[in-house]
Amino acid sequence: MMRSKRMASRIPFLLLGCAPLFTSCTTPRPAEKPQTEEPKVEMVEPEIPRTGTVTNPKPETPRQLIDATVRLAGTGASRLHANYIWATLENREQDTNINASFESALNQTNCESKLALVRALELKFVHDAKTSGLDILGPELSKHFREFDWQEDDFPGGPEGPNEKFADVMVDTLDLVRPERRANSTRDAVVLRAEATESVWNYITNQWAAVAGQERWKLNRHALESFVRMREQAKAEGVNLIILSAHRNPQVAQRNAARSGNPNAVASFSSHSLGLAIDFKLSHGDLKVDETTTRPMAEVVRMRESPVHKWLLLRGEEFGWYPYQNEPWHWEYNPPGFRGIYWADFPGGAPER
Asked: Is this model's pTM higher than 0.70 or not?
């Protein structure tokens, strides 16, 4: 069943756990108030002249800075939940890096220092073994999904599990906070199945290039350039992005799908075949998971504790990479406007829809 059809009946429930995100630094929207007994504090922002530099900043109290950081994250600067930001900054003295970033932002009182504090909070979240990507939904929903009594076959598709509909609710809720942009389906698609003629497949495969350091795998040349930059940034922040699967020959993908029996797990027309998808290794440091498995469902949920998944969840969009929510390991390159770039060298350009 297509996700767009499933969503209609679940929107009222999903909206209880999520809020819209918009990107801005100098014009933040009011922050979501976390579940706390702390009094509401009016935030005082410094004046920002047209040059973008801050002059004569007004001093902030620690409480005002916490409030300002929550507000800034709420404008789209981060997908960290307000509760996590408040709790971490309230207990900042327990973490040397967070405390140093907080003191720096408190002394500088400008947007750049607040953004640096948000980045420090994100890295703490990424490397904290107790956090999960589900935490971007807030503590109540995250706890509910993480502690749910998942059964072996609850992953959508294949042998039917008793809680498949609840698994759909989980990924639909995540999709409201960190939207997918599937490269092979929906209105955001780069290439649709109906457009994949023999000449198009020749064009697609000729756009592949080997990944430096993992030459076994290939990506579309645009996706490759972005991945290399993303891999370098992740490594600088303590996260290793290792490819378990990338390009797939179209004929091989069709044969694998026929053998699988689960269209949600192995697609016959895949973003891998377009050179626009990567399956990442999620085992990282002390965390070991069963890679790219759809059973048991509890293991799929646990994969969201991986630093790799959490880093991609928070940072991947900066590089044009988007999740496939059913599979924590699967990410696709499809930034807005990419369809035109992908087809630019094909005679006649992208087909009209």
From this structure: yes
